[in-house]
Design goal:
Elements (H helix, E strand, L loop, with lengths): L14 H7 L4 H4 L4 H5 L6 E5 L5 H9 L4 E6 L2 H14 L4 E5 L21 E7 L8 H11 E12 L5 E3 L3 H16 L10 H7 L7 E11 L5 H13 L5 H15 L5 E12 L3
Parallel strand pairs: 1-2, 1-4, 2-3, 4-5
Antiparallel strand pairs: 5-8, 6-8, 7-8
Helix pairs in contact: 7-10, 9-10
Protein name: Methyltransferase domain-containing protein
InterPro entries: Methyltranfer_dom (IPR025714), SAM-binding_MTase (IPR053173), SAM-dependent_MTases_sf (IPR029063)
Length: about 280
Amino acid sequence: MASENQKDWMASGSDLMRRAMQNRRLIPDVPHLKPIIDALPAGAVVCEVGCGPGGITLDIAQQYPELTVLGMDIDDESIKLARDAAEKAGTKNVRYAQGDACNLDKLVEVEGFEALDGGCDLVYSHAAIMHTNNQLAAISHMRHASKAHGTISLHEGDMGLFFAYPENPGVKRWLETFPVLGLSKGADPYLGRKLVSLVLAAGYAHGQIKGVSMAAQMQWRPQVKPGLVMGFGQIIKTSELEEEDKKLIVEGLEEWSKCEDSIVSFPGVIVTAVKEA
């Protein structure tokens, strides 16, 4: 994430969402990264841009103790949570720093983050770049942080493709409103469809793009739905929407969550590119 005025839109302004993000892991959330990480040599450096409270980075560090894992995020509270979790786990090969995705070069001066000056074997982001106010700058900095023959991997959602079933007036209003809230904060909720264009604009050639695919996180389990409703409801309640709209959306989400057959899908796009020497 990139600027303080965006911290109240998604996870950075919500303790509930921070806790949910701390439960993210490599296989369920970014399984496309596993074959890339499996192929890395001992001593390789992996960096997550927009790591939040560090769920994925800590999981990678624990599974691959021979690697150095870095995580950065604009939200200092998330970084504190990430550091606390790593310390509690006794994991020594992961480091965290607060910083701006659009100015990764400034983190080179932070102890342990020297590899961001063209020394990373893998630089990835997961649903983070859309929250910056300059997505091209963020991706360009990720390319700079990558070493020759290093990989960047971007996984970003596209809220224009989100859907839920069954729809009711509140859920329909939520699907219409949520992208607008993102735009109002300077984010790009439709970033997924633009990733290829931005990767090319950041300096990669077509031949350096190694993969473009879609992934959709489907939520349908009864035990997950109340948490989703609480998280999105908190965001809606603290937004600048009219009170009537807030009430309609929150009640609609609660009604949706109680349906036995309800599902929601969060489609995204994954783009992987390798930097030439």
